[in-house]
Specification:
Layout (H helix, E strand, L loop, with lengths): L3 H13 L10 H10 L5 H13 L5 H6 L2 H7 L6 H19 L3 H5 L3 H9 L6 H11 L9 H9 L9 H11 L4 H18 L14 E3 L2 E3 L7
Antiparallel strand pairs: 1-2
The protein binds a DNA duplex through α2, α3, α6, α9 and α12.
DNA sequence: GACCAGGCACATC
DNA sequence: GATGTGCATGGT
């Protein structure tokens, strides 16, 4: 018997197709993006990344040597720039101390150890850590975000009180542990969230996860708002 | 002008 | 352990 989550995945993939995540050219760029996108629109993150690229600063060594104030200036467009500059610096300190500033060396370590280490860096929480593990280091771990929680709650798969680890556990337990699947699934949920899960969105009627009861369309979001 | 976007740390109860 | 708040930009 297939779990609901497998069916959701198939529906989402059929509807949207592959999402080609993470949109970045190097693992290090993924890490920078993961920190910059915290509670921020991706378009604004792109502006910051572009700034860094134009000035030739998008490498671990360059960023490590760049003064905090100057880094903050470059990443202004993605918001919370003072905090995020400090978070990038905190990551870089860890990155050079433990892995000589090499994502290749880093990906040689085990998933559990890496997750524990990342979570100990100030400014890296569960979603950022898991995004780095999955999208920069190719580790089989599921990324949970605000959209993920909405979708699971709306469809009665998780309780409104469920925390991050609990939500992640539902995916890990009920899906085959495949990097490609985890990669695509999270990206598809974000796509779904952007297009359908906004309040008072008239397009909710055509959400690919709506179900039919008899002749009636049942919207997944009905039970949430 | 309000509300939102691919969170996190910290204070307080 | 739950709940509230600061952090800041750019789009709708």
């Amino acid at each position: 018997m297939k779990h609901k989550l497998s069916l959701f995945y198939e529906k989402l993939y059929r509807h949207f197709g592959p999402q080609h995540w993470w949109p970045a050219q190097t693992p290090f760029e993924v890490i920078v993006g993961a920190i910059l996108t915290q509670n921020t629109n991706w378009r604004n993150v792109e502006r910051s990344i572009e700034n860094l690229k134009i000035r030739g600063l998008l490498s671990a060594k360059k960023l490590y040597r760049l003064p905090l104030k100057e880094l903050a200036l470059e990443i202004r467009p993605s918001g919370y720039f003072n905090i995020k500059a400090a978070r990038l610096k905190a990551f870089l300190e860890f990155f050079f101390r433990e892995y000589a500033g090499s994502t290749k060396k880093m990906s040689g370590a085990g998933t559990r150890k890496l997750r524990r280490q990342l979570l100990s860096v100030k400014g890296i929480g569960p979603e950022t850590a898991d995004s780095i593990l999955l999208y920069a280091l190719n580790k089989p771990i599921f990324v949970v975000d605000a959209y993920t929680k909405r979708v699971l709650c709306r469809h009665g798969i998780a309780a409104a009180t469920a925390g991050y680890d609990q939500l992640q556990g539902i995916f890990i337990k009920n899906l085959p542990r495949r990097i490609k699947l985890f990669n695509e699934y999270h990206a598809l949920i974000v796509r779904l969230g952007k297009e359908f899960c906004l309040k008072n969105n008239p397009r909710c009627d055509t959400c690919p996860l709506n179900t039919k009861k008899g002749n009636r369309e049942v919207k997944g979001c009905e039970s949430y708002f």
